User: What shape does this take?
Amino acid sequence: MSTSKTKENKYKIAVVPGDGIGREVMEATINVLNNLDIDFDYVYGEAGDECLEKTGNALPQETIDIVRDSDACLFGAAGETAADVIVKLRQEMKMFANLRPVKSYPNTNSLADDIDFMIVRENTEGLYIADKEEITEDGATAKRVITREAEERIIDYAFKYAQDNDKSKVTGVHKANVLKKSDGLFKEIFYEVGERYPDIKKEDFYVDATAMYLITQPESFEVIVTTNLFGDILSDEGAGLVGGLGLIPSANIGSDGALFEPVHGSAPDIAGKGIANPIAMMLSAVMMLRYLEENESADRLDNAILKLLSEGKVLTGDLGGNSTTKEVTEEIINLL
Assistant: This one.
């Protein structure tokens, strides 16, 4: 992940807090970012359930323009309008790659201590195309779209990610034994693209087998690349391997921009109580820093989070502690 910006530049960051705990974890993360030696110019935009109630639009054009004009976007969380907000932003900004790291941290109930892989999910096609779904006399139908252009782009991205991050293997995930034409094409393209990367090992599994292997041998994966629906499902399974959604960041990368967000949702049951875990949002900011090629600052923040979790003294309730969002934030700043 990279951008053309250089270290001397001020970065214009679109900040979209959204709903529920999105606002709380965003405030915490901005406070942490302000303690790094980087000049950020934050431009705030509205989106989500509350925005819909107030303006009649879950994602105003003004917010889309703010995201489009930024170097990167930090997004908090959306409630019931998540599909209308995130999916539309992905489409508007041509964000074709969804990145979901799955990594075990201390004191997080991970299934194993050595889990560390990236799921690279195609973001623009597959079954998640709303205009290809319709009601029929017999019920409903949905059309699955797989194109050579989109799949070659995402597979090449996965191999390049592996190459740039010292990963030695890429796993293609599909269901070509049943979906012989669409996933058959995916598998064919996977090995075609793989030939461009002779130093990286290639393997492919059916998606159901992969779901099992994630439980039985999660340490064997390094980079997984797959289509939209399969990637969506496997990503949440991956979160379950390492203690749940509270520690999982994500990135949406495209030719026209990048958006970084935690995947835990707006959690209305705890919103406003000051007890939300901000670490997934902060880890999303780490991904943003790496996208901006601010790797030294990314390492500082990542190491501070790792130390906080390793010490286990300042943890929110979802991690077995009783600290507040503010207390976690202050400790991360101290560790920086």
User: Anything to note?
Assistant: The first strand starts at residue 11 and ends at 18. Residues 148-164 form the longest helix (17 residues). The mean pLDDT is 93. DSSP finds eleven helices and twelve strands in the chain.
